């Protein structure tokens, strides 16, 4: 198999000799449908570039390519104290970031607060009241003052990790709730005034300077400590990227009459790449995942590479093989737990790929413990190979988005900052993605990779604070593009 990235030891490969012909045939079939060769990677990347361009156009396309109104990189010498608020699906995080005099240096103080489940489906006012209460607790604890009104107003960057449309850097109209939230009366509204009203009610010394996406924060935070960083990516429950574009290359903001060479960060939201199904090599199992999802026909790219779906792909294949009368998988076993949709996540595959033992005993224990299934050695070999195939395909396809941005921008050498559970925790994901990038961009053998994907800085904390700092700096310089509340900014 060409281009599959790191392989297992030859000794384990030899154990395939013990696998019956019916399972070997299924393994070969799975290898055919899940393997993405170099030619396909290049085809996907070529189409990706066209879709990036289309998203920037007036007409738009499946990839939104949202302008973020972050107008440039930090120079590393930003200073001052800033708050950062990170609202995710499980926790609310409040940080105070002190940007120091030394280039790229900062201190961070942070507290996490559990997001109560009842708030996720409650009333809008209750949500914002809770957030304001957490911020008040944080400030009172860390600043040790009785009268908060005596404090100077602290600029805040708000990482709002939900799909939002921004006409200004300090606003965001919620497109739709995700992550289990379903609060009525907020979708279609600007969340900034709702947040600001709760802050004002408590007379907290805060001014909202920027509302950001976590991918944009990853880009800016990584660039703060590494000036060769040009792209920020998230490979976790979902997938996304952000990069810096020239305003003159974004036709849909031409009416703002901005200088054509002025930079603006673009939040790609490219999980929606190829919703039309032109080039992505979907298997029958990918089609089932899409059709059974809450939003069929959307997020096509994400459904093939993101952590939310890797375990489900694995599960669908195993159920299909069990029910397939031409091969014998889990015979006589009760697979009722395996039949439950989304009962497995990407960590299940991670544990299989990390099993260090020749007899795959840890994988066997995993199946017994989690699914109540007793496996034999050939079945374990099949499961191991399937996990490798799904994990490798995800890593290789993830490289296409990075390669497309680099090709479009004619970036020959840079660092890419990546965050997310799949990038940070899934075995071999980084190495497999690097191999794919090399194949797509035709680097010479023996050449050091000119474009490297590295672990990112804290985008939703440090990145949010930096973007607040950059926005205030812009106001002072008179560059007011995409800023709603200019008077309240400084």
In whole angstroms, the N-to-C terminal distance is 59 Å
Order of helices and strands: HHHEEEEHHEEEHEHEEEHHHHHHEHHEH
What's the gyration radius in Å? 24 Å
Q: pLDDT average, as an integer?
A: 90
- Approximate shape: globular
Widest sheet: strand ordering: 1-11-10-9-12-13
In helices, the fraction of residues equals: 40-55%
Low-confidence stretches: 1-14
Indicate the proportion of strand residues: 15-25%
Known CATH architecture of the largest domain? 3-Layer(aba) Sandwich
> Total number of helical segments?
16
Number of strands: 13
Number of domains: 2
In CATH's first tier, which class of the largest domain applies?
Alpha Beta
Query: CATH topology of the largest domain, which one?
Result: Hexokinase, domain 1
Structural class call reads alpha/beta
| Main beta-sheet strand count, sense and barrel state | 6 strands, mixed
Which key features would you list for this structure?
16 helices, six-stranded mixed beta sheet, five-stranded mixed beta sheet, 490 residues, Nucleotidyltransferase, domain 5, alpha/beta, 41% helix, 2 domains
Q: What this model shows, in words?
A:
The structure is a single chain. A hairpin with a 3-residue loop joins strand 9 (229-235) and strand 10 (239-246). The chain has helices at residues 10-14, 21-34, 38-56, 117-120, 124-143, 191-201, 214-225, 284-291, 302-305, 307-323, 346-354, 361-371, 377-408, 421-425, 429-441, 459-477; strands at 66-67, 80-87, 91-99, 106-114, 154-160, 164-165, 173-174, 206-212, 229-235, 239-246, 263-267, 414-419, 451-455. 41% of the residues lie in helices and 16% in strands. Helix 2 (21-34) packs parallel to helix 13 (377-408). The model is unreliable at 1-14 (pLDDT under 50). It is of the alpha/beta class. It has 2 domains: 11-66 and 215-457, Hexokinase, domain 1; 69-212 and 458-477, ATPase, nucleotide binding domain (Nucleotidyltransferase, domain 5, 2-Layer Sandwich). It is globular. It has 16 helices and 13 strands. The strands form 3 sheets. It has a 6-stranded mixed sheet, sandwiched between helices. Strands 4-3-2-5-8 form a 5-stranded mixed sheet. One of its GO terms (molecular function) is mannokinase activity. Its EC number is 2.7.1.-. Pathway: Carbohydrate degradation; glycolysis; D-glyceraldehyde 3-phosphate and glycerone phosphate from D-glucose: step 1/4; Carbohydrate metabolism; hexose metabolism. This is Phosphotransferase. Belongs to the hexokinase family.
């Amino acid at each position: 198999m060409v281009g599959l990235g790191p392989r297992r030891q030859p000794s384990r490969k030899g154990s395939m000799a013990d696998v019956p012909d019916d399972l070997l045939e299924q393994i070969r079939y799975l290898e055919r449908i899940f393997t993405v060769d170099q030619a396909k990677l290049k085809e996907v990347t070529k189409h990706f570039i066209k879709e990036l361009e289309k998203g920037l156009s007036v007409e738009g396309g499946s990839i939104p390519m949202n302008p973020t109104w972050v107008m440039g990189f930090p120079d590393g010498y930003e200073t001052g104290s800033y708050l950062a608020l990170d609202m995710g699906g499980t926790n609310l995080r409040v940080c105070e970031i002190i940007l120091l005099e030394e280039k790229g240096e900062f201190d961070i103080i942070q507290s996490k607060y559990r997001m109560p489940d009842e708030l996720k489906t409650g009333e809008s006012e209750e949500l914002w009241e809770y957030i304001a209460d957490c911020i008040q607790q944080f400030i009172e604890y860390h600043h040790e003052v009785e009268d908060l009104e005596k404090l100077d107003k602290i600029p805040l960057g708000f990482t709002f990790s939900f799909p939002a449309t921004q006409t200004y850097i300090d606003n965001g109209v919620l497109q739709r709730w995700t992550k289990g939230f379903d609060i009525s009366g907020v979708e279609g509204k600007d969340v900034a005034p709702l947040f600001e009203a709760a802050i004002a009610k408590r007379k907290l010394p805060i001014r909202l300077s920027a509302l950001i996406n976590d991918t944009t924060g990853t880009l800016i935070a990584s660039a703060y400590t590494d000036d060769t960083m040009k792209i920020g990516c998230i490979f976790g429950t979902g997938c996304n990227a952000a990069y810096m574009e020239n305003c003159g290359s974004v036709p849909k903001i031409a009416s703002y009459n901005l200088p054509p060479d002025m930079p603006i960060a673009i939040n790609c939201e490219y999980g929606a790449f190829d919703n039309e199904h032109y080039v992505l090599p979907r298997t029958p199992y990918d089609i089932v995942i899409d059709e059974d999802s809450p939003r069929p026909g959307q997020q096509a790219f994400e459904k093939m590479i993101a952590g939310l779906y890797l375990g489900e792909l694995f599960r669908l294949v195993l159920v299909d093989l069990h029910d397939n009368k031409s091969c014998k998988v889990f015979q006589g076993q009760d697979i009722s737990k395996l039949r439950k949709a989304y009962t497995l996540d990407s960590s299940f595959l991670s544990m299989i790929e990390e099993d260090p033992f020749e007899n795959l005993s840890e994988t066997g224990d995993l199946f017994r413990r989690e699914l109540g299934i007793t496996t034999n050695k050939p079945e374990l070999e099949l499961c191991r190979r399937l996990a490798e195939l799904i994990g490798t395909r995800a890593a290789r396809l993830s490289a296409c988005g990075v390669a497309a941005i680099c090709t479009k921008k004619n970036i020959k050498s840079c660092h890419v900052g990546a965050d997310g559970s799949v990038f940070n925790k899934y075995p071999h994901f980084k190495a497999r993605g690097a191999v794919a990038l090399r194949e797509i961009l035709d680097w010479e053998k023996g050449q050091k990779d000119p474009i490297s994907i590295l672990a990112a800085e804290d985008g939703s904390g440090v990145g949010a604070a930096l973007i607040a700092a950059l926005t205030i700096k812009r106001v002072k310089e008179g560059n007011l593009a995409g800023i709603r509340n200019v008077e309240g900014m400084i």
